[in-house]
Automatic annotation (TrEMBL):
PANTHER family, alphabetized: NADH-UBIQUINONE OXIDOREDUCTASE CHAIN 4L, NADH-UBIQUINONE OXIDOREDUCTASE SUBUNIT ND4L
KW Membrane (keyword) present: yes
Organism of this sequence: Haloarcula limicola
Keyword Membrane carried by entry: yes
Gene3D superfamilies: 1.10.287.3510
EC number from the UniProt entry: 1.6.5.11
InterPro entries documented for this protein: NADH_UbQ_OxRdtase_chain4L/K, NUOK/Mnh_C1-like
Source species, domain of life: Archaea
Intracellular or extracellular location(s): Membrane
Name under which the protein is recorded: NADH-quinone oxidoreductase subunit NuoK
Assigned protein family: Belongs to the complex I subunit 4L family.
A GO term, aspect molecular function: oxidoreductase activity, acting on NAD(P)H
HAMAP family xref list: NDH1_NuoK
């Protein structure tokens, strides 16, 4: 059996990649993919601790997080389509002109 430390190391690496994508990129699609990576890192933690403690609570939370991620992508793609329609680009720095 693989120890939980390896799962936590994988989760930390995936989370750091997602955080790097959010902090350095301006493309809205990359933002969405980076948020998905961060949510998947949390899912790895949930499942790893669920496996370690021998109950299914972490796996249930992981399924809930996957449903939340699906809803987030649906709303995010709608926002990106509006952004592209108004500015013909998906650069998030151009959307500051849409403020009140």
């Amino acid at each position: 059996m693989i120890p939980a430390q390896w799962y936590l190391l994988l989760s930390a690496a995936v989370f750091c990649i997602g955080l790097f994508g959010i902090l350095t990129r301006r493309n809205a699609l990359v933002f969405l993919m980076s948020v998905e990576l961060m949510l998947n890192a949390a899912n790895i933690n949930f499942v790893a601790f669920s496996l370690q403690h021998g109950n299914l609570t972490g796996q249930v939370f992981s399924l809930f997080t996957m449903a939340l991620a699906a809803a987030e992508v649906a709303v995010g793609v709608g926002i990106i389509l509006v952004l592209y329609r108004n500015f013909t680009d998906v650069d998030v720095t151009k959307a500051t002109t849409m403020r009140w």
